[in-house]
From TrEMBL:
Keyword presence, Lyase: yes
The family this protein is said to belong to: Belongs to the cysteine synthase/cystathionine beta-synthase family. Cds1 subfamily.
GO CC annotation, single: cytoplasm
Listed InterPro entries: Cds1 (IPR047586), Cys_Synth/Cystath_Beta-Synth (IPR050214), TrpB-like_PALP (IPR001926), TrpB-like_PALP_sf (IPR036052)
Keyword Cytoplasm: yes
Species the sequence originates in: Bradyrhizobium diazoefficiens (strain JCM 10833 / BCRC 13528 / IAM 13628 / NBRC 14792 / USDA 110)
Compartment list: Cytoplasm
Function: A cysteine desulfhydrase that generates hydrogen sulfide, H(2)S. The H(2)S produced by this enzyme stimulates respiration in M.tuberculosis, mediated primarily via cytochrome bd with a lesser contribution from cytochrome bc1/aa3. H(2)S modulates the balance between respiration and glycolysis, and also contributes to redox homeostasis. Probably eliminates toxic levels of Cys (which can induce oxidative stress).
Enzyme Commission number(s) of this protein: 4.4.1.1
Name of this chain's protein: L-cysteine desulfhydrase Cds1
Family annotation (Gene3D superfamilies): 3.40.50.1100
GO biological process: cysteine biosynthetic process; L-cysteine catabolic process to pyruvate
PANTHER family: CYSTATHIONINE BETA-SYNTHASE
Domain Tryptophan synthase beta chain-like PALP: residue ranges: 40-331
């Protein structure tokens, strides 16, 4: 049974109050926060064995709330405020596996509205602590399949607003520019030897970031292609492969932040050029390998991204192609000390990343082909699809 949320100190029992001046102040506060925050770094990963193939990592872990979801949360709050969904005193509710809720709790605290995160009970303790640090309430449920319904029901009970990141992620962000993540990447690449990357590789949680990047590539008429890496126990890959949005997956994804049990409304298959399905154990191996090379830990979803990028790099190397590749560091590994970085946790789930780490390290050290079989499909309708 779900836990009943604890009362929030800012909650107004009489219901939200409409005051245009408060909305103006809230938008100004969020915009001021963005002005204070420098853009995230674009790191070049030096891999001597891959001479001619430049690898870049957009480090989203440096946002104030520590993840890629900071951008999404900011956009969702501005969207809800400017559409009249959030008023003074409006309780905000979100369905989340963790990182989005951390970021939304930050913005809710900033503008003084109560925040409730409906999350699976399996969400890492570190993420729960971060949400509570920003004044949010964690509403934990046992059945992840009930996440959406419980969030909507809780918002109704509180006379609040259900943010619904999985529906509104793709429309809340201005994909034409306005310093979105795609525009930021291309601006930062301007002084590089190969400023137009061959591929951008990334995972999908809501699908909003891949929609933003894919649309921006088409809007700017760039030749760059978009590869989305999915994980086990997720519906996105089968949705893309069959062009059927009805696919569902009964088991939840093991990799937090990516993969969903249904094809979320914000996932836009038509802007994706290629998808891979990465085994969980290979994701964790790639997370470990990249963490050692960066000399700091990254999260699991970053491992998914990095492995997809390395597979593309291996193909380019085998074909004698030069170019540049970009992927994302979604968050820090500090949030996963009790899960992906815990040997006991891995052993309990029958996961041994060591053989995959050896294979990936060998590729990065010698440029020998990366021997890793993954499910892979190209969008036949994409004008930039590959053979």
């Amino acid at each position: 049974m779900p836990m009943e949320p604890t009362p929030f100190r800012h909650h107004n029992p009489a219901g939200p109050v409409y005051r245009r001046g408060w909305v103006d102040e809230a938008v100004a506060a969020i915009e001021a926060d963005q002005c204070r925050t420098a853009d995230t770094h674009l790191i070049r990963l030096i891999v001597p064995a891959l001479s001619g193939i430049d690898i870049y990592l957009k480090d989203e872990s440096t946002h104030p709330t520590g993840s890629l979801k900071h951008r999404l949360a900011r956009s969702l709050f501005l969207y809800a405020l400017c559409n009249g969904h959030i008023r003074e005193g409006t309780p905000v509710v979100e369905a989340s596996s963790g990182s989005t809720a951390v970021s939304e709790a930050y913005f809710a605290q900033m503008i003084g509205v109560p925040f409730y995160a409906v999350m699976p009970r399996t969400t890492s303790a570190e993420k729960i602590a971060a949400i509570e640090h920003y004044g949010g309430n964690c509403h934990l449920i046992d059945d992840g399949r009930a996440l959406y319904a419980e969030a909507a029901a809780l918002a109704t009970r509180l006379n609040g607003h259900y943010m619904d990141q999985f529906t509104f992620a793709e429309r809340a962000t201005d994909w034409r520019g306005n310093n979105n993540i795609a525009e930021s990447i291309f601006t930062q690449l301007q002084g590089e030897p190969r400023p137009l990357p061959d591929w951008i590789a990334m995972g999908a949680g809501t699908g909003g970031t891949s929609a933003t990047i894919g649309r921006y590539l088409r809007y700017r008429q760039y030749p760059t292609r978009l590869c989305v890496a999915d994980v086990e126990h997720s519906a996105f890959f089968d949705c893309f492969r069959t062009q059927d949005r009805s696919h569902v997956c009964e088991r939840p994804s093991l990799i937090e932040g990516v993969g969903r049990p249904r094809c979320e409304p914000s996932f836009v298959p038509g802007v994706v050029d290629r998808m891979m399905k990465i085994p969980d154990v290979a994701t964790i191996a790639a997370m470990n390998v990249l963490s050692r090379r960066l000399r700091r830990s990254v999260g699991g979803s970053t491992g998914t991204n990095f492995l997809a990028l390395c597979r593309i790099a291996s193909e380019m190397r085998s074909a004698g192609q030069a170019g540049s590749l970009v992927t994302l560091i979604c968050d820090s590994g500090e949030r996963y000390r009790q899960t992906y970085y815990d040997p006991a946790w891995l052993k309990a789930r029958g996961l041994d990343p060591a053989p995959f780490e050896i294979a990936l390290s060998s590729f990065l050290d010698t440029a020998q082909p990366l021997a890793l079989a993954v499910e892979d499909v190209v969008n036949p309708q994409s004008p930039r699809s590959v053979a």
